[in-house]
Amino acid sequence: MGNINSIEIMVAEHDNILRFNNVVRRACLGILEGKDVCAEDFRSMVEFVRNYADKYHHGKEEQILFKEMTAHLGQIGTNLITHGMLVEHDLARLYISELETALDRYHLNFSVDARLDIIAAAVGYTKLLKRHIDKENSVVYPYAEKRLPEEVLESINARAETFEIQAEKRGTQKKYLDVLAMLESKYL
Asked: Which member of 23, 115, 131, 142 has the greatest number of CB atoms within 10 A?
């Protein structure tokens, strides 16, 4: 890779997550229109969120960028991250946990109540992530680029590059972008 810009990579990942949000919303619209819940697709969505959006993307933010922001940007940086971004990451995890629980309930009895919970958790996730991504792209990332010392930004980029290489060896990016493409072909 060499000389990557970690923020540019994370913005591109946000674009993929927004594409994913469109798929989720379309799948939920289908349920509202009377289509059956395709539990297999929703389980793929849960897997995408947990392994691409959370472990891979949020992993870079939480383990690298956000740690440096809280270490170097004083109370403003700490508040922005700990009381803003990390709270929203945890809320996203809650929505996905609730989606998984609703899928489990739906599997047991195919109830309308479980269908409602599937839609509520999935759409809640998409709405949260849309706002969250907008804040990161327009406030958090530019603040980091403007306020962090150059040597810290270089360190973030070097550590993000190592993170990317390790994820590539595991096939993370390819696997989940393939899952996204499959879901898009089905729902969009």
From this structure: 23
